[in-house]
Design goal:
Mean pLDDT of chain A: 86
CATH class of the largest domain in chain A: Mainly Alpha
CATH superfamily of the largest domain in chain A: MetI-like
Low-confidence stretches of chain A: none
Number of helices of chain A: 14
Strand content of chain A: under 5%
Order of helices and strands of chain B: HEEHHHHHHHHHHHHH
Largest sheet of chain A: none
Number of helices of chain B: 14
Helix content of chain B: 55-70%
Shape of chain A: globular
CATH architecture of the largest domain in chain A: Orthogonal Bundle
Strand content of chain B: under 5%
Oligomer: heterodimer
CATH architecture of chain B: Orthogonal Bundle
CATH topology of the largest domain in chain A: MetI-like fold
Number of strands of chain B: 2
Distance between the termini of chain B: 27 Å
Chain lengths: 299, 290
């Protein structure tokens, strides 16, 4: 009797527990779903807020229409370029520095390591940073999306910790065979640390793709606008957006459900901004998790 | 060979510190610094001596303290989330929940704002639509342009974005707890809740403590992105935290030097807080957090 009572309690607990998590998971996922069903529903119904739980009057023309908006393909290109170039440079630099700081023969190793790591803990503030970027001619300059992010202490720590876990005998035997640092780095270390490099790469790529404030501070020329920044403007400048839509749509007579409205443009651009994250995320989730856990060991 | 990287670090992390000099001048953008009037500590003292500026700074500090305190209060949520999630025995369900609840962490604040826009706008937003259909309200509520419950909505959005992700650290800590402890407790007749309370909770307390200290160290660094995208003329009085205030008056407004003074003070205080948190950690855990 007693045993049965306890298992009843267990069942109730399990059910309630799973139910709570189910609700919260739906809360997390619903906004993504809601925007998506709205972008593929009739724009007329979307504009009235009539699409709530499932798509109505399905069409896919929004995704083609939105690309005709002036400046949007360029913004997508800028976002893509900074993500690809920024990630590559950060990964290579972090790998190299992370390796270098494990080499006991490096001149002033401890000092230079601290010199880089300590920058995680102080910050001059955005105004001095802005002045500096201006003096370096990095306003309205694509390099502003790349150069400041190349050396990142957190990634260097991650990689250094990982390299330290590789048996030093591997490197020593290569040295006995007369291999120099570069050879050791590229031939021996690099292939062994690819898992942690993948972690750094996904972190860096997501940060680059999501970055918004640097465009806000540094770029006034619209040819350097990123997708995030363009989306923000669409959300906040309703009248400007309406006129942009008007000028791109022209006199073409379209089916009423695919005529662009501010709401449909906002939602479609949002889906375009989130799509790469959604596509990449399921595969790379474990890399993110590894990053945060290794980082915690010596963060 | 490391030289180019050391130079980059200097240019983007150390060189900006010279910008604090601007706090000692009456700087007008466009004019070289040296040709501006040198005012010494004028901007620093004006924080306390000029009543309007004092009021402004106090308002901004109030918001900063409110948001950070709420952040510290809600820091137990990921702990609770992790403890209860690890009680789920169905593997696929637990993993799916974990993956889907960490997803919001990887989208930008602009996108979160776009979601908020779609879900909460006055007449066509999902929430107003549903409430009107249910007859709870007659006319749409303008949730986004409202000065009521600003702190609460901000903490709700950051919880939505960060809860699942912040729980990961605790989930990892829970899996590293020795399973023999649970087995021994079971033999002694411990129930589920008592095992959660007497084994799981103490097992993840060290992790919680470290993260809490880091949060205290960052007490005045709320960042500005979230508040910038959500701010509007109506909620501005409640949403402006220090970082956003510095941007608003320095970059948008014309008080560049005053804003620099405020932000330099902020940087110094936050380094001090970090030292305090680190000292506490050494004292209590015998280990530094840096």
């Amino acid at each position: 009797m007693k045993a049965k009572k306890r298992s009843n309690g267990e069942t109730i607990f399990n059910t309630v527990n799973c139910f709570m998590f189910l609700i919260y998971t739906l809360v997390c996922v619903f906004p993504f779903y809601y925007l998506f069903i709205n972008t593929i529903s009739s724009n007329e119904l979307t504009g009235l807020g009539l699409v709530t739980f499932y798509p109505k009057d399905i069409h896919f023309s929004n995704y083609m229409q939105v690309l005709k908006i002036k400046g949007l393909p360029n913004a997508a290109l800028v976002s893509l370029a900074r993500t690809v170039i920024g990630t590559l440079t950060t990964v290579v630099a972090s790998a190299f520095l992370g390796f270098l700081f494990t080499q006991k023969q490096m001149w002033g190793r401890k000092f230079w390591y601290r010199y880089i790591v300590v920058t995680m803990y102080f910050n001059a503030g955005i105004l001095p940073w802005f002045i500096t970027m201006m003096n370096l001619r990095l306003t309205n300059n694509f390099l502003a999306y790349i150069l400041p992010y190349i050396v990142q202490p957190f990634y260097i720590i991650l990689i250094k910790t990982y390299v330290e876990s590789i048996p030093s005998s591997l490197q020593e035997s290569a040295q006995l065979d007369g291999a120099g640092y570069l050879v050791i780095f590229f031939r021996i270390i690099f292939p062994l640390i690819t898992p942690i490099l993948a972690t750094v790469a996904v972190f860096s790529a997501v940060n680059q793709w999501n970055s918004f404030t640097d465009t806000l501070f540094l770029m006034t020329d619209s040819k350097y606008y990123t997708l995030q920044f363009v989306l923000y403007r669409y959300l906040n400048e309703a009248t400007a957006l309406a006129s942009i839509i008007k000028s791109t749509q022209g006199p073409v007579t379209l089916d009423v459900k695919s005529i662009q409205t501010p709401t449909s443009v906002r939602m479609t651009v949002s889906m375009i901004v989130v799509a790469p994250i959604l596509l990449v995320y399921p595969y790379f989730q474990r890399y993110f998790v590894r990053g945060i856990i290794i980082g915690a060991v010596k963060g | 060979m490391a030289l180019p990287f050391l130079i980059l670090t200097f240019l983007f992390s150390y060189l900006p510190l010279h910008g604090w000099l601007y706090a000692f001048y009456n700087y007008r953008p466009g004019i070289p610094l040296r040709q501006n009037e040198f005012v010494g500590f004028y901007w620093f003292t004006s924080i306390v001596s000029n009543p309007t500026q004092t009021a402004e700074v106090l308002r901004v500090l109030r918001n900063t303290f409110a948001m950070s305190s709420l952040g510290i209060l809600t820091s137990v949520l990921p702990v609770i989330f992790a403890i209860f999630l690890s009680e789920i025995r169905t593997n696929w369900f637990r993993k799916t929940v974990q993956v889907l609840t960490t997803l919001p962490n990887f989208i930008s604040w602009v996108l979160v704002y776009s979601f908020a826009f779609a879900l909460f706008s006055t007449n066509t937003g999902f929430v107003n639509r549903i409430l009107m259909q249910l007859g709870v309200i007659e006319r749409g509520i303008n949730f986004l342009a409202s000065d009521r419950h600003v702190w609460l909505t901000m903490i709700l959005w950051s919880t939505w974005k960060g809860l699942g992700w912040n729980a990961i650290m605790y989930l990892a800590a829970i899996t590293s707890i020795d399973t023999e402890l649970y087995e021994a407790a079971k033999v002694d007749g411990a129930g589920r809740f008592s095992m959660m309370w007497h084994i799981t909770v103490p097992g993840i307390m060290p992790t919680y403590f470290v993260l809490l200290l880091l949060q205290i160290a960052n007490f005045i660094n709320n960042g500005m992105e979230q508040y910038y995208v959500f701010q509007n003329a109506i909620n501005k009085d409640y949403i402006e935290v220090l970082d956003l205030y510095v941007y608003n008056i320095g970059m948008i407004g014309t008080s560049f030097s005053f804003a620099t003074a405020v932000s330099a003070l902020k940087s110094l205080v936050s380094v001090f807080l970090l030292m305090v948190a680190n000292g506490l950690s050494k004292l209590i855990r015998g280990e530094s957090i840096l």
